[in-house]
Structure formats: structure tokens, C-alpha cells
Amino acid sequence: MSYARVLCAALEGVTGHLVRVEAVLANGLPGVLVSGLPDAALNEARERVRAAITNSGETWPQRRITVNLDPADLKKRGSGFDLAVALAVLGGTGTLPLVALDGVLVLGELGLDGSVRPVRGVLPMVAAAARHGVTEAIVPLGNAAEAALVPGVRVHAADTLNRVTGFVRGRNTLLDPPDTPPPPLGPEPDLADVAGQEMGRLGIEVAAAGGHHLALFGPPGAGKTMLAQRLPSLLPRLDDAAALEVTALYSVAGVLPPGAPLIRRPPFQAPHHTASLASLVGGGSGLARPGALSLAHRGVLMLDEAPEFSRQALDTLRQPLEDGIVTLGRTRGIVAYPAQVQLVLAANPCPCARPVGDVACTCSPHARRRYLGRISGPLLDRIDIQLQLPQVKAAHLFTDLATREPSRTVAQRVAAARAVAAERWTGLGARCNAEVPGTVLRQRRWRLPDTDTGELRHRLDTGALSARGHDRVVRLAWTLGDLAGLDRPGAAEINIALQLRTGALT
Predict the structure, then answer these.
(1) How far apart are CA 105 and CA 137, in angstroms?
(2) Cα(453)–Cα(443) distance, rounded to whole angstroms?
(3) How many CB atoms within 10 Å of residue 183?
(4) pLDDT category, 181, cuts 50, 70, 90?
(5) What number of other Cβ atoms are within 10 A of residue 359's Cβ?
(6) I need a labelling partner for 292 at 20 to 30 A (CA). Which of 239, 266, 321, 489 fits?
(7) Residue 126 has pLDDT above 70, yes or no
(8) Which of 176, 103, 101 is nearest to 145 (CA)?
């Protein structure tokens, strides 16, 4: 009986786990048995591995082969185990010494011709191996640049099984990760394109500076979509930790942009209003995959024509907006994906979306209320800024573009305000005002004077404002203070925050 072992990794959501691929060759009826909770794709690896070994010039052993994936109680999914299984089987025959693979992570799918093909989720799997002390990894050539992002791990790229067996035998070397410069970033939508809407511009700036959620209501052509699309251009680039989080999510989802393994721009997701619940929050058969909500992590999730989304889809966002994480349970397990997003809702005033008072608009007041009522009160209560945008006037539409403030100028103020907030809340781990717990803001050290919060307290006592709404107004006030360069917000900032919250800004 011959035994061999190769190190691999499995994924649960965006969390990687080390897996030991063991192979035992024994006398008996030729066949392959895979144990260790494999899924269908992994069970089918038997035929892929057999064909790849044969077409790579190796001899398939005519013996009884048992492949075990340890730990056995962890569910294994996908085709990323193929290369490790092939090397373990060849190691069990005694024709392939596996000393060179001691402590080396091996990932990759095999084609029938022996080629090594890319797989999803390489970044979080290599990162998990690094946390367990692994310092070398063999990955498909198409995943090498992605895997090389993990510090402390030397990455070897493989394009064929034959190249890997030659490396193990000391006959050749593996490939280095491609050293290609990232593609140039395309132009972003500029805030200078938005005509008029000074209040909308203020709302976008405050939202960017404090990480606040935003809702824009108004007639068609008022600039709701344009403002929302320009929010990412005001946000600072992702730091290393955030960029790795976002890149890992895109790797798991299989939508990592080619040629740009590390995502530095805050992501922007704008699903169509006909999007299913699974595509919005995550789902799929077996084990749920990340949806638009998680793919917008550390960025912006825009729901244009928000009342046209199903009520269930909109209300599903309520808990993730509070917790910053979405937990999905399916038949094959429960996964949790990060979902720290800035939500932007945009909505017309009625189903026909014609200007109020227009003779062609036949919507009754009841129909208008019912249309906007599709966005539930509990969801709106979680939206910090709620603005009513007026119709754009000709005087605004035909102003000189050079007189409008561009995104880069506003982004500088946003970056300065975020830096002040991050320094102030550094002990809490919060990066912006929207992430600060309300209990902290009500502590003696950070509580605002009663003389400045009189109107805020009155609205809370009369039920015009919920406790959650109170905390969100206070957070908005701190953001306005940061933008104004103040140590603490005053009565003026609280009043503006109230107006931003209630949409009564004029």
C-alpha cells in the first residue's frame, strides 16, 4: 500500500480552509473513491484527473485508489482540487517524489489535455494558507497575479500538469507570476456634469464624507441618477486591507477584472429593478454566492427606480445595512459575506413620472402615496439623507461647465473630512461617522449640548423622529462639522442635518 499527501484549500464563503489531499493506492479492483464530503464537481474530478495524467505522458495506476480530503467534516466544492489530487495519485505510485511539495499549497483545475486552468477564490485560499504559515503556493497561470497579492507567500505559476511534475522531479522550473502593469483606470463621471441641484450636490458631498446612505426623490431628468453615479468619484481609493477584501469577493464570484487583480476603486453596483432577490443579496443552488450587495462592499449600491424593485428585495436590505454583513443559508451550508455599502435610492414621484400638475399626469394623490410606499418605512428610516430634488431650470442647464465644481475639488474636501473622522474614532475602529455606534455619540464625551439639540429632542419626544433617526441626524451633524473644519458640530450643523434627513432643504 502506498500513501501520498498534498496540501490544498477549500472555501466557505470568503473564508479559506486548508485541506490535505490524501491518496492511498492498494491492491484490488481498479477504481477511484473520493471521500471527505465532495460535491458533484469534485466527484467528477476522477475522470478529469485520469485523462490529464494520461495525456501528460504519465501512467495511470491500475490499482484501487482512495482519495480523502481532510478534514472530512468540511464540505469541499469546485474543481480547484484537481491538480492536488493528480499529484497525490502520482505520488502514491512512487514515480513522483513529493518532497518538493512539503508545505506547498497546490491549487488548479485540470483540463483533459493536462492543462492547468484558473479557478475561483484563489486569493482568499492563499491568504488562509499564509495565516497557517504556508510560504509557497502553486496556482494556475491565470490566477498567479491574484495570488501574488498575498504578502509573505512565494507564488509559482503553472500552465500544465507536465510542467508541475517536471518541477517536482527537478527537471524544470515553474513560471513566475506575470509582471504586467495594471490597466489605466478609465475616466469617472464628473460632478461638474450635473446642472444645478445645489442641494443634491451638498447631499452627495455629505454622503461621501461621512459614509451615509442617501435617497433622492424627484421628477425625471432632475439628475438623481447622475448624482448617484458620481458618488464613487468623491470617495477615497481603497486602502490595502479594504482592497484585498473587495478583491477576494470578486474572486469568489468569478468576476475579477482581467489584468487588474487588486481593486482600488470603490465598487459601484447598480442592478436593474427586475433583478431577482438572489442576484441582489446573494444566492444560488447548493452554497450561496455573493450578490450585488456584497459586490458593492466598501463602495456604492445604487437602486435606481427603487419603487419598481420588489418589496421583498428592498426589505431584505434592512438588516445588512445595520450589520454590514449578509448571512445566507442554503441546503449545503450557511455563508456570511461582508456588505458594508453606501446605499443610494432614486425614485420618481409617481408611476407615470410626469411633472406634478401636468395635464397628462392622471395619478391620484393616493396612487402617488402608494407608489412611494413601496419603499417601506423601516428601510427609509435607515437612510440618513432624504432629498426632494426640484425640476432643473433652463438657467441651470445652460450654465458654463467651467463654473461648476468638479469631482476632484469636492473629493479633496471629502478626503480631509474623512481623515479627521478616522483620527477621532480611531479607538472604535470606525473609519467614518456613519460607522460610529449611537451609544458612543450619546456618551458624555461626545454628547452635543442640550442648547443645540433642542429641536432634535423635541422631534424625538413627539415621535416625528425615531431613536435610529436621532442617531443618524447626529452623525450627519458631525460630518457637516468635519467638512466645515469644526472641532464639534453646533446648532447650525444640527439644523442642516435635520433638513437633510427630512428632505426639507430649500
Answers:
(1) 4
(2) 15
(3) 10
(4) low
(5) 6
(6) 239
(7) yes
(8) 176
CB atoms within 10 A of CB 399: 12
Cα-only R_g, the chain:
28
For residue range 255-281, list pLDDT tens digits in order.
Answer: 887 776 788 899 999 999 999 888 999
Instruction: Name 129's Cβ contacts closer than 8 Å, sequence gap at least 6.
Output: 7, 9, 16, 18, 105, 137, 153
- The C-alpha cell at 346 is 432614486
C-alpha cell at 369: 402615496
Choose among 189, 211, 185, 180: nearest CA to 264: 185
> Whole-angstrom Cα distance, residue 101 to residue 166?
12
Nearest to 106 by CA among 161, 52, 25, 45: 161
The residue type of 99 is: V
Which three cell numbers, joined as nine digits, stand for 382?
Answer: 435607515
Instruction: Spell out the SS3 assignment of 91-134.
Output: HHHCCCCCHHHCCEEECCEECCCCEEECCCCHHHHHHHHHHCCC
Q: What are the angstrom distances between the C-alpha of 463 and each of 191, 376, 466, 467, 501?
A: 37, 17, 6, 9, 15
- Residue 330's Cβ-side half-sphere holds a number of Cα atoms within 13 Å equal to 16
- Whole-angstrom Cα distance, residue 266 to residue 242? 9
- Find where cell 445566507 sits: 328
